[in-house]
Amino acid sequence: MLETVWFILIAVLFIGFFFLEGFDFGVGMLTPFLGKTDTERRVVINTIGPFWDGNEVWLITAGGAMFAAFPNWYATLFSGFYMALFLMLLALIGRGVAFEFRSKLESPRWRTTWDWIICIGSLLPALLWGVALANLMRGVPIDASMNYVGSFWDLLSPYSIAAGLSMVLLFLLHGALFLSLKTEGVLRDRARRVAQRIGAWTSAVLLLFVVLSYFETEMFSSQGINPGLVPVLAGMALLSVHFFIKAGRDGWAFIMTGATIVLSTITVFLLMFPNVMISSLNPDWSLTVYNAASNTYTLKVMTIVAATVLPFVLAYQAWTYWVFRKRVTAQDHLDY
Amino acid sequence: MEAVELARLQFGITTIYHFLFVPLSIGLAYLIAFMQTMYVIRDDEKYKRMTKFWGKIFLLNFAVGVVTGIMQEFQFGMNWADFSRYVGAVFGGPLAVEALVSFFMESTFLGIWIFGWDKLPKKIHLACIWLVAVAATLSALWILSANAFMQEPVGFEIVNGRAEMNDFFALLGNKQLWVEFPHVIFGALATGAFFVAGISAYKLLRKQQIEVFRTSFTIAIVVALVSSLLTAFAGHDQAQHLMTSQPMKMAASEGVWNTTEEHAPWTVIASISPEKQENPFQIEIPYLLSVLSYNKLSGSVPGMLELQAQYEAEYGPGDYIPPVRTTFWSFRAMVGAGMLMILLGMLGTYKVLRNRLENSPRYLRWMLPAMALPFIANTAGWIMTEVGRQPWVVFGLQRTEQGVSPLVSSGMVATTLIGFTIVYGLIAAAFIYLVVHTVRQGADVDAPHHKAKSGQAQDSGTAAVL
Lengths: 336, 466
Prior knowledge:
A: mainly alpha; globular; B: 2 domains
C-alpha cells in the first residue's frame, strides 16, 4: 500500500520536474538561437532566472525519494545507467554555473562560451532522460541480484533515441511557448515562430515513439495498468497546441504542452506499475515496487514528512511565479 | 587501481571540493542577512552596498555549491550501490527530507532574493535571505544526521540482511549528530567571517571604499572570533564523545598505540611507523590527553593495539586500524589552523576596539592568507573523520569495500573521476577569476548592470527597426 503511495509520489516528483524544468531546458536550448544580441540573450536567460534552480530541486528530490523509498531502484538505476548519468550530471553542473557566471564579465567570447554551455547543458539532460525512460519501458539486462549487466551503448537504440528526440522537441516547444509568455516584441515573435515551426515535428516524432513502443515494449500487452484515455488526451493536447498558437492564445498553448508532458509521464508510470525496472533477461528478476522498497516504518515516516512539507513547497513556488509574473524586457534590471 | 579505491578517491575529491563552497555559503548567508537587516533597520545606504557586494560573491559561490551538490546526491547510487541497498532504508531518509525541507526552500527563496530587490517590499525581501540561511543550516542538519549514522548507527534494526529504520527520532537525536552539527555550523560561520575579513583587509590596505570595508571587517572579525572559539569548544565536545563511540579513531588521531597510563600525556608531534606499530619519535605534554579526553588530570586512553584485539573478538579477523598518519596529521592541521584563527580573531577584535585597524598594515596583510585557514581546518577535519572511520563505511555494520557498486568497472570509475576532476578544475579557475574581478571592482561599481543598460538602449533601438 505505502509502496504504491511512494510510486505515485515519485511519479509526481518526475512530473513536476519534467513540467517545470522542461520549459527552462527549452529556454536554455533556445538561448543562443533566439537571442541575436547580448541583451536579447540576457532577456531570454532572465525569464527563467528566478525559477530554474527551484525547478531542478524536483529532480534532486525525486532522487532522494527513490533512495529513501526504493533503495534498490536507486542503486540499480544509478549504477546501471552510469555513464548516461555522468553525462547528465556534467551537463547540469555546467549549465548551473553558466547562468551565474555568464554576465559577470564583459568579454563576448566568455559570454558566448557560457551560452553554448547553457544550450548543450539543457539539451543533453532532456535527450538522456528520454533515452532513460525508453529503456525503463522496454527493459534492460538486469541479473538475479538486481545489477545492470549491460553497457552504456546498450542503452542507445533507434527506439531510445526516438524517445530522447521526442523529449528534446517537447521541451523546446514548451520553452518556446514559455518565452512567448515572458517576453515582448521581436523576441516574442521569434519564440512564437519557433513554436509554430517545431509543433508539427514534435507531434510526428512523438507519434513515431508511440508506434515504436508498440513493437519494442511489452507494455501494451502484459503488465501494468491500462492507461485508458490518458495517452489519447496527451496526443490531443499536443495537437491542439498548433491551433492555440494560430489563434494567439499562447497561454493555452503553453498549458497544452504542459498537459502533454504531464499526461505522457502518467502514461509511462501507469504502464510500468508495479515494475520500476524491467529485466529483459528474466521477468522474475525485474525490480518492482515491492522488492525494491524500504520497510514500512521508513515509508510511513517519509509519507508524513512529504504530506506535511509538499503543500508548503507548492505554495511558495507558486508565489515565486506570481512575484515574477511580468514579462521580462531589455529595460528591466537584468540580474543574469 | 581497484574500483573501490577509485570510487573512494572520487568521493573524497568531489566531497572535499563541494565542502569548500558549502561552509562559505552558510557563513556568508548569515553575514549578508545581518548586513541587510542593518540596512532595513537603519536605512543606511552603506549597508545596502555591503549587502550587494558580498551578495555577488555569495551567489558565485552558492552556484558552485549547488551544482556540485547534485553530484553528491547521485554518487551513492553510482559508485556505492551495495551501500545504498544495505542502508538506503535508513540513510536515504535524511537525504530525501533534506531535499524536501531544505533544498526547495533554499533555492526558491534564493531565486526570489536575487531577482526581487525592486519587486518586493524591503522586509519581505529581507525575510528571503534569512530563509535561505535557515534552509542552508537545516540542510546541514539533515546531511549530518545521515553522516552521524555512518559514524554511530542508531535507530535501525537488521532485517533480511539490510538496515531498516525503526526509530526516526533516534536518528535525529543521535548524540554524534549533536556534537557534529554545532562544530560544522560554527566552522561555517568562521569560514564566511574570515573570508569577509580577509577581502575587507585587502580593500583597506588599498584604501578603497574604506567606509564599507571597515564596517564589513568589524562585523566579520567579531563573528570570526566568536565562531572560532565556539568551533573549538564544540570540537572538544565531539572529541570527548569519540572516546566512547569510536575510540579507535581517537587513538589513531592521537597516535596512541598502547593504552596509556593513568595520566595520559598528549603527543604534540610524532613520527609514526604503522609497520612497526609504534612512534619512533614523539614530543609529549604530560597529563594533557587525560584533560582533553575527560576534563581531568587522570584517565587512561585506550590504544590502537588493544582496540584491534577487542574488535577482532567482536567483528572477526581483519585490520581495524585506520591509516594512522593521515588521521594523526589531519587532526593536527585542523587544530593548528583553528588555534591560529582564534589568535587572529582576538588580535583583530582588539585592534578594532582600539580603533587601530587601519594603522596595522602588517596585521591586515596577514588576514589575506588567513582566509585559507578555515578551508584547511574544514578539509582536514573531514579527512580525519572519514579516514579515521576506516575500514568501516558504516561503523560496525559495513566495511568500505563491501559498499561499492559490484558491476561498475574501475575503467568507468576512472573515466568519471577524470571527467569530474577536469570540469571541477575549470569551474574553480573561472570562479576564482570572477571573485578576484568582483573584488577589484569593489562595492561602488555595479558594472554589468550599468553597461547592460547603456547597451540596452541601442539593442531595443535595433529591435524596433527589426
